[in-house]
């Protein structure tokens, strides 16, 4: 029962990433508030306030109708204008930077809340307008409710001004990369602080029992703690062989077990693997490396030709790799100092190769970019621990590959000598 509750909580958390979640929630709240106000009007709140605080009540039917009608038309126009502008800016971001950035821009919760507030106010104004009696006297008019409509409209105008400011900041590439970096940094620091791994603690998994995935999609999350509890209860060990963040096809091996498992246990374990059709940096820090690399590559394309953005992207990549060096290539879930689950991640060698391969292919002809990449690699080499020969060899291989490609692409002898002097 507890596992099912955790499963439902994870599904609810995924639901909050949907672009329609917050607008729908606020629209429902606006609908509920409308009927609260109608209930108070039925109890005579407008009549009471008209006698005690007349300034708080709109007591003219035509004025109320005109205000509410104007608010409804104005808000619909504002909403259409705002999100038409968003679509234009998203199209620009996709063309100039990378289509991979769009999910992060679309899922901005502040903009979703503003949209929801617009919708809630429109619904409120519509229902209050319908509630006004055609031939009602001043006591039948929901004057206090109309006052709230005015307040909501003022807040909508303020939200619109904020939205214009926010979207203009959001679309700037430096702010986009900074946001990606900060999300990825938080995720990696969390993993570094909480990961435990000892190669000697886990047995060889070569001949273990294999169990396949029944779903396909991007592996978003794996609840290692819950799987470890199941493994302990079954007196076995689990090795998660798929890498989080990658696309998993049906019938791919999902995990292996030291002992054979029954169908009920297999079902319980697979429930703790979350699949999705999209990727999120909050769950997979590797996506940050991909997105920033694509920004750098797109900036160096002939159609964009923006080496300044590429240089900034390499600075962010340098900081991300500096954090990634501190993380192990595998991690384990322990209970009472006994490892029950082992999970693989994208190892450092594959990650830096994928990033450098793209950058070498599209930026090897530019002396300034090659210089920046060499500075990044030497910086990483300087912060790697001396006894970590594996990482040092990986970085040295990337430096040599970059020099080989630069020698073939750079034709100017003076530029080539400058690059070699750095090497």
UniProtKB/TrEMBL annotation:
Pfam families: DUF2254
Residue stretches in coiled coil: none
Alphabetical UniProt keywords: Membrane, Transmembrane, Transmembrane helix
TM segment ranges: 20-40, 67-90, 111-132, 144-164
Source taxon at top rank: Bacteria
Name the record gives this protein: DUF2254 domain-containing protein
């Amino acid at each position: 029962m507890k596992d099912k509750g955790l499963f439902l909580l994870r599904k609810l958390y995924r639901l909050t990433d949907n672009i329609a979640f917050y607008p729908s929630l606020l629209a429902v709240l606006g609908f509920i508030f409308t009927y609260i106000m109608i209930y108070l009007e039925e109890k005579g709140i407008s009549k009471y306030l008209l006698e005690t605080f007349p300034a708080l009540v709109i007591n003219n039917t035509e004025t109320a109708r005109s205000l509410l009608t104007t608010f409804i038309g104005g808000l619909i126009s504002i909403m259409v204008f705002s999100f038409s502008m968003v679509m234009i800016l998203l199209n620009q971001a996709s063309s100039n930077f990378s289509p991979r950035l769009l999910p992060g821009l679309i899922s901005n919760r502040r903009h979703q809340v503003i949209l929801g507030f617009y919708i809630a106010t429109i619904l409120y104004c519509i229902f209050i307008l319908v509630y006004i009696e055609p031939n009602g006297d001043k006591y039948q008019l929901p004057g206090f409710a109309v006052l709230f409509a005015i307040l909501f409209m003022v807040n909508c105008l303020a939200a619109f001004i904020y939205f214009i400011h926010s979207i203009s900041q959001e679309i700037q590439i430096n702010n986009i990369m900074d946001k990606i970096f900060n999300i990825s940094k938080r995720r990696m620091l969390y993993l570094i602080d909480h990961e435990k791994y000892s190669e000697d603690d886990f047995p060889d998994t070569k001949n273990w029992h294999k169990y396949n995935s029944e779903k396909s999609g991007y592996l978003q999350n794996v609840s290692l703690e819950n799987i470890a509890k199941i493994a302990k209860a079954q007196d076995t060990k689990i090795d998660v062989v798929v890498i989080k963040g990658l696309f998993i096809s049906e019938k791919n091996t999902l995990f292996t077990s030291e002992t054979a498992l029954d169908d009920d246990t297999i079902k319980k374990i697979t429930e703790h693997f979350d699949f999705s059709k999209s990727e999120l940096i909050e769950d997979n820090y590797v996506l940050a490396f991909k997105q920033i690399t694509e920004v750098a590559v797109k900036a160096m394309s002939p159609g964009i030709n923006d080496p300044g953005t590429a240089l900034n992207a390499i600075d962010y990549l340098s900081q991300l790799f500096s954090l990634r060096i501190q993380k192990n290539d595998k991690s384990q879930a322990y209970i009472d100092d006994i490892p029950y689950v082992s999970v693989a991640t994208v190892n450092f060698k594959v990650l830096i190769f994928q990033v450098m391969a793209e950058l070498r292919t599209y930026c090897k002809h530019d002396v300034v970019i090659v210089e920046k990449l060499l500075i990044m690699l030497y910086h990483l080499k300087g912060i790697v621990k001396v006894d970590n020969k594996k990482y040092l060899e990986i970085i040295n291989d990337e430096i040599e590959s970059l020099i080989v490609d630069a020698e073939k692409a750079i034709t100017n002898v003076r530029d080539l000598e400058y690059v070699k002097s750095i090497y």
